[in-house]
Design brief:
- About 35% of the residues lie in helices and about 30% in strands.
- With about 325 residues, it is an alpha+beta fold.
- It has two domains: about 5-115, 3-Layer(aba) Sandwich (Aminopeptidase), CATH 3.40.630; about 150-325, Gcn5-related N-acetyltransferase (GNAT) (Aminopeptidase, 3-Layer(aba) Sandwich).
- It has a twelve-stranded mixed β-sheet with strand order 1-2-3-4-5-12-6-11-10-9-8-7, sandwiched between helices.
- α6 runs antiparallel to α10 (about 280-295) and α10 packs across α11 (about 310-320).
- The radius of gyration is 20 Å and the shape is globular.
Length: about 325
């Protein structure tokens, strides 16, 4: 293969952006389920600026042909010590130095921006660590956490939802559920921001060097504006306590113009409100509303730490099946 040149992708050039998207799709084509965002989703989401994160898209070229791709993700509000990377090389192009060239450029961008903790997500089969994780270890990364990647077929599992809804309601006590699509109701905004600020400290992190986020009402409104610019919808279900405060929440993201795949964002029940089956109740209502609002939705995908026994049990009841593993590989520079 010719010498590899790594270039930044101009996100305003749809042709280059489609090449970048196609490389990632090809690199993931051997996974058990197609969870790569559809092009009609990415063509609107990728060009949008993100005021909370610096995002760089990179392409590895052999001559004029793109043969690998990468994304660099660096938070600007919280966790400003982090640089996170996704590196994609199609199976037929591997073992030719393409991934190494991309990773080197990703790391150089992060170091130049003062980032001291580097993260790279890699996928692995269910029964072995796989080549990608060994590749990352050879380049100084260590496994910091492991997620199970799961999907649920909405049509095939719809019949189980009424019984699960009734089961969850048996323990709901003085709690009630509410749902909305963006924008969030003003009456819940401050309480939702407070709950979201607890997310990082409450979920299993393994050895990940992540620090809490500070969400505010203004910050949530900015994120909602970004979703609108991307033609993306966020559906939120919240469990409200006896005083109306947000005791837990879950959300899903999808594109109404291309709704095949919905992705779970966060799911959290605050510690003082646990024991009321709120997690199950919220997820049941989320599934019901995805089906009602977006008839073209087929799958919901989620990732949960393998040590998160509660959420894994909830997802098992809902009919999620494990299709992949994701290793969060970490390199500490200081």
């Amino acid at each position: 293969m010719a010498d590899i040149e790594v270039r930044e992708i101009d996100r305003s050039d749809e042709g280059h952006l489609h090449d970048w998207w196609s490389i990632g799709h090809a690199a993931m084509s051997h996974r058990p389920v197609d969870l790569w965002p559809d092009w009609e989703v990415s063509r609107y989401s990728l060009p949008q600026a993100d005021p909370e994160n610096r995002i760089d898209l990179l392409g590895a070229y052999a001559g004029d042909t793109m043969v690998g791709s990468a994304r660099v993700f660096m938070p600007l509000e919280d966790n400003v010590h982090l640089g996170a990377f996704d590196v994609h090389v199609p199976p037929a192009q591997r073992r030719q130095g393409i991934g190494s060239a991309l990773l080197a450029r990703c790391e150089a961008l992060a170091v130049a921006d003062g980032r001291t903790t580097l993260l790279a997500d890699v996928r692995a089969p269910l029964d072995e660590d796989g080549d990608d994780s060994r590749w990352a270890v050879d380049r100084g990364y260590a496994k910091a956490n492991e997620d199970g990647i799961k999907v649920v077929d909405l049509a095939a599992t719809a019949d189980r939802l009424p019984a699960l809804e009734a089961h969850a309601a048996e323990r709901s006590g003085g709690y009630r559920l509410a749902w909305w699509t963006d924008p969030a109701p003003e009456e819940h905004l401050a309480s939702l921001a407070a709950a979201m600020s607890r997310f990082i400290e409450e979920i299993p992190l393994g050895d990940l060097d992540l620090r809490p986020q500070a969400w505010t009402a203004d910050r949530l409104r900015i994120r909602e504006e970004r979703h609108a610019g991307q033609r993306r919808t966020q559906l939120t279900v919240a469990a409200l306590g006896p005083s109306g405060e947000v005791a837990g929440y879950t959300n899903a993201h999808l594109s109404p113009h291309a709704p095949r795949l919905a992705d779970i964002g966060d799911t959290l029940v605050l510690p003082d409100h646990r024991g009321h089956r709120l997690g199950l109740g919220m997820k049941v209502l989320l599934h019901q509303q995805v089906r009602a609002l977006f008839p073209g939705a087929e799958l919901i995908a989620t990732g949960n730490a393998t040590t998160n026994s509660f959420m894994n049990a909830v997802n098992d009841q809902l009919g999620y099946r494990l299709v992949d593993r994701a290793f969060e590989m970490q390199k500490l520079l200081v």
